[in-house]
Amino acid sequence: MGTDYGRDIAFGVFPSPDAAPDALRRTWAVVEAAERGGLDLAGFQDHPYQRRHLDAWSLMATVLARTERLRVFPDVAHLPLRSPAVMAKQAATLDVLSGGRFELGLGAGAFWEAIEAMGGRRRTPREAADALLEAMEVIRLMWSDQRSVRFEGDHYRLAGVKPGPAPAHDMGIWLGVSGPRLLGAVGRAADGWVVSHPYLGTEALPGMHARIDEGAAEAGREPAHVRRVYNLWGTITGHGVGGDSGEALRGPVEAWVEAVTGFVLEHGMDTFVLGPAEGAASQVEVFAAEVVPAVRAAVEAARA
After folding, report:
1. 17-31 burial: b if 16+ Cβ within 10 Å, else e
2. 158 - beta bridge partners?
3. How many CB atoms lie within 10 A of CB 200?
4. 41, 107, 152, 175: most buried by Cβ count inside 10 Å?
5. Burial class (CB in 10 A: 0-12, 13-18, 19+), 160
6. Cβ distance 79 to 135 under 8 Å?
7. Model-level pTM?
């Protein structure tokens, strides 16, 4: 028996943040194809220490300015090098300026040597998890309508700061996590969960869903409240540019439709963010025009 939480499904793209001119041209082409094709989201990785990458927050602001309907989110924001209180203001600002088109993906951090090299502090896995949980509280306090807010944690502190501005819509916090403790926190307190198919295949999903659902039950929440985002990489063959045979997903449109429909109906995921082969806009065009509507139709038919 498969797992399907019955949520509306959504689709997006995962463009490269590479600063090289040719890569940046491909990024804009991917964003434009997603906007033109009616996709829902654009997610951007956030690795400030990566010398080849543009700053994710400046890039996301520019994407929002260049589009009218795409929602944008960090996939996921790098907490160890960014203050959560300031990040809350940045996220709310982008949401206000875009008319409610920003969501906040948040991660505990990785690549600790690179973080230390950029002035950050190395955290143990427990410290990183604790800091992530504290950051969620800080961010929500900074989005609140209270006159002033205080918070005293082991990693973050607010000492009577006046919060604001508030986001333009009920912004979600989506956690990019995989450990049992933080999966429980997703169910208890977060609005979404973000994972990547090449790193966490479908065999790992049932146990992770179960932990999220247990956390939701502990907090009196419905498991279906939690959006479940799957980053996908691969090549849609027979159209546009090809790719490496070692990619996680590779095949014609029909194979992609079957796989993604299964991710919904059998494996509990509801939002699919495509990293197109070689950053090709042609892959996004095929995804939007052929894969997405066929998956929507198959899921609707199965649920009916």
Report:
1. bbeeeebbebbebbb
2. 151
3. 14
4. 175
5. exposed
6. yes
7. 0.95
Three-class SS of residue 296? helix
Asked if residue 163 has a cis previous peptide bond (ω within 30° of 0), the answer is no
- Taking alpha carbons only, the member of 178, 81, 79 closest to residue 135 is 79
Decide: 34 and 72 in contact? Cβ < 8 Å.
Answer: no
**pLDDT tens-digit map of 2-31:** 799 999 999 999 999 999 999 999 999 999
Pairwise CA distance, residues 34 & 37, whole Å:
5
A 10 A CB-CB count for 36 gives 15
b (16+ CB within 10 A) / e for 81-119: bbebbebbbbbbbbbeebeebbbbbbbbbeeeeebeeee
CA proximity to 215, closest of 133, 138, 113: 133
Q: Could you tell me the two tokens for 156?
A: 């973050």
Place of tokens 């939690």: 226
**CB-hemisphere CA count at 13 Å for 214?**
11
Which two tokens mark 164?
């604001």
Phi, psi angles (nearest 5°) of residue 51: -65, -25
- pLDDT tens track for 43-76: 999 999 999 999 999 999 999 999 999 999 999 9
